[in-house]
Amino acid sequence: MKKPKLSVMPRQAKQFADMAQGRATPFDSFIASFHAEVIRSVGTKADDNRALAVLTDWCRQERICAGRAI
């Protein structure tokens, strides 16, 4: 069976394939459930989200695979 060309796959399908095959890490996939499980202030939750955004942007600039949640 031929593998489909990833360049022609829809963005979300490619992102899923990258995550499933370990080529991308969706840093923000579980932050909402994490925040729901722990007691944190609104400010701390906002800090968490900003830190993840900075890390994701840095990874993108350095061409390190770090996907956003689908």
Short characterization:
This protein has 70 residues and is mainly α.
Question: What would the keywords be for this entry?
Answer:
single chain, 70 residues, mainly alpha, 3 helices
Structural account:
The protein has 70 residues and is an all-alpha fold. It has a domain at 24-70. It contains 3 helices and no strands. It has helices at residues 11-20, 31-37, 42-61. The longest helix has 20 residues, at 42-61. The two termini are 27 Å apart. The model has no long low-confidence stretch (mean pLDDT 80).
Secondary structure layout plus pairing:
Layout: H1 11-20, H2 31-37, H3 42-61
Quantity of strands, as a count:
0
Overall geometry: elongated
Order of helices and strands: HHH
Strand percentage: under 5%
Radius of gyration: 15 Å
Q: Percent of residues in helical segments?
A: 40-55%
Q: Structural class, please?
A: mainly alpha
The overall average pLDDT, rounded, is 80
Largest sheet: none
Query: N- to C-terminal separation?
Result: 27 Å
What is the count of helical runs? 3
User: What are the low-pLDDT stretches, counting only 5+ consecutive residues below 50?
Assistant: none
